Amino acid sequence: MFGNADKVSIRPVLGRFVAEGTKEKLARAVSNIAQAPIISIPAFGLINYFSLDFYGFVFMTSLCILFAGVLPVLVVMLWSRNKKSESDLPQKEDRIAPLVIVITIYLAGTAALYAAGAPLLSTALMFCYFSNTLIVFFINIFWKISIHSMGVMGPTVALIFAFGAPGAFLGLVLPVVMWSRIYLKKHTISQVIMGALLGFVLTAAQIYLVYAQSGIRPDITLILWLVYAFIGPSIVLGAAGIMNGMGVLDGYTRKFFHFIGFVSIAAFLRYAPAEAAMIFIALGIVYVGIACFSGNGFPWFDGIRRKADSPNETIYVIMPMVSTVLGLAVCWALFGHPAVEVGMLCVAVGDAMAEPMGVLFGRHKYKVFSLMGSPSERSVEGSLVVLLSCSAIIFLFTGSPIFSLALGAILSLVEAVSPRGTDNFTVFLVSAVGIAIRSMIAM
Predict the structure, then answer these.
(1) At what angle do helices 120-142 and 54-64 cross, to 10 degrees?
(2) What is the pLDDT of residues 154-178, one digit of tens each?
(3) How many helices (H) and strands (E) are present in the chain, helices listed first?
(4) Most buried among 2, 19, 171, 405, using CB within 10 Å?
(5) Is 228 exposed, middle or buried (0-12, 13-18, 19+ CB in 10 A)?
(6) What 3 state SS string does the chain have?
(7) What are the φ/ψ torsions at residue 378 (nearest 5 degrees)?
(8) 90-146 pLDDT, tens per residue?
(9) What are phi and psi of 10, to 5 degrees?
(10) Residue 304 above 80 pLDDT?
(11) Are 266 and 281 within 8 A, CB to CB?
């Protein structure tokens, strides 16, 4: 489906270990299971379980499953069978009539839950299914937005309102669902992103307003950070893939993702609740893992791999990610703030700028040992960029020009001698150690 990326091979590339047919079967299974009515069931069940006694839970959850799960699924099944179409109704014209029926079902479900005295959040979520689907109906007239993505984010937001950060667990399937819809060519990147974004924002806004009308003012700080945590990586990966498809060199698109991703992590570490930072990092790992699983030809992977790394493209995507996560874990456990932010920014800015500058202006090349494949090539000019950029970051945190230049020089040497794929860890660790030592001396 995506070129020759999935030919069975013993080469150490994750995407090539899985045959094309297996990937397609997996994508279809995910697409069939992760439909909005099915995803709604665990969300309603959990909300009701922790809000009601046993008999109330059984009754209210049965109502929720009937109106949000069983009836919408029956409508879609019968309509797709009548149209001799697939169950997800890939043609937007075929979705109009069933959407109208499902909208009516959701509205009836909202009325039934309200009349039965269901928990406020369950009633609000059912109303969101009604209103969000109504909005989808009008969008669908002109554009085929992803109901799958919206169907994951809506109930995830409700669970976050109910349980805080632990409620975000449902949203961890979002990258897999997005992948399945793109892989099967049911949606474009923009369609799955907009579905997720609208599902998150619309549901959050409506539940907040319902709570506010009831005199409840929930803290939405976590919600605001999680908008980007869930959807940001798909936007950046998609942009990198699109740029690659437009002919931008893969070294540049890779560093685009590297820079935006790592600066975003630093911002989360610095300003966001700790739970939001952990969720963002976990989601980033899932997104990159799926990109690697997909292999060449899938836009998320094409934007972050280098063709020159063949046949080890995936290895040299995974190794920097692992070394960064390892560096983050070690430095967070040993040093905490602000050393961990300085380390992340030095990796983000220094490494991201060194390669493009080295390609453009590098005249004095040198070889560096690689753990796999042939030695990699770096340049003195690129190392100078590491020195200057890391020094600037360190100065922003310390205000000491001499210390900043000294540590920046050390980091440029560390980056220069680190085996390829490990410099994210070594630069991270050494910069954090330097900041920690200075802090101890200052105390």
Answers:
(1) 10
(2) 999 999 999 999 999 999 999 999 9
(3) 19, 2
(4) 171
(5) middle
(6) CCCCCCCCCCCCCHHHHCCHHHHHHHHHHHHHHCCHHHHHHHHHHHHHHCCCCHHHHHHHHHHHHHHHHHHHHHHHHHHHHHCCCCCCCCCHHHHHHHHHHHHHHHHHHHHHHHHHCCCHHHHHHHHHHHHHHHHHHHHHHHCCCCHHHHHHHHHHHHHHHHHCHHHHHHHHHHHHHHHHHHHCCCCCHHHHHHHHHHHHHHHHHHHHHHHHHCCCCCCCHHHHHHHHHHHHHHHHHHHHHHHHHCCCCHHHHHHHHHHHHHHHHHHHHHHCCHHHHHHHHHHHHHHHHHHHHHCCCCHHHHCCCCHHHCCCCCHHHHHHHHHHHHHHHHHHHHCCCCHHHHHHHHHHHHHHHHHHHHHHHCCCEEEECECCCCCEEEEHHHHHHHHHHHHHHHHHHHCCHHHHHHHHHHHHHHHHHCCECCHHHHHHHHHHHHHHHHHHHHC
(7) -125, 175
(8) 666 667 788 899 999 999 999 999 999 999 999 999 999 999 999 999 998 889 899
(9) -95, 5
(10) yes
(11) no
The token pair at 76 is 């879609």
Residue 70: HSE in the Cβ half-sphere, 13 Å Cα cutoff = 8
CA 318 to mean position of chain CA atoms: 16
CA dist 32 and 185 (Å) reads 14
Bridge partners of 367, per DSSP, are 377
Region for 361 from its dihedrals, namely left if φ exceeds 0, alpha if ψ lies in -120 to 50, beta otherwise: alpha
Write out the DSSP string of 276-330.
Answer: HHHHHHHHHHHHHHHHHHH-TTSHHHHTT--GGGTT-TTHHHHHHHHHHHHHHHH
Residue (of 30, 254, 8, 306) closest to 146 by Cα position:
30
Give the residue from 14, 196, 45 showing the smallest Cα distance to 118.
45
Q: Is the pLDDT of residue 17 over 60?
A: no
| Max intra-chain CA distance, the chain | 76
Measured CA to CA, the distance from residue 123 to residue 390 in angstroms comes to 52
pTM greater than the 0.90 cutoff: no
Whole-number Å distance between alpha carbons of 365 and 105:
67
Q: How far is CA 87 from CA 41, 78, 137, 270, in A?
A: 19, 9, 17, 45
370 strand-pairing partners? 420
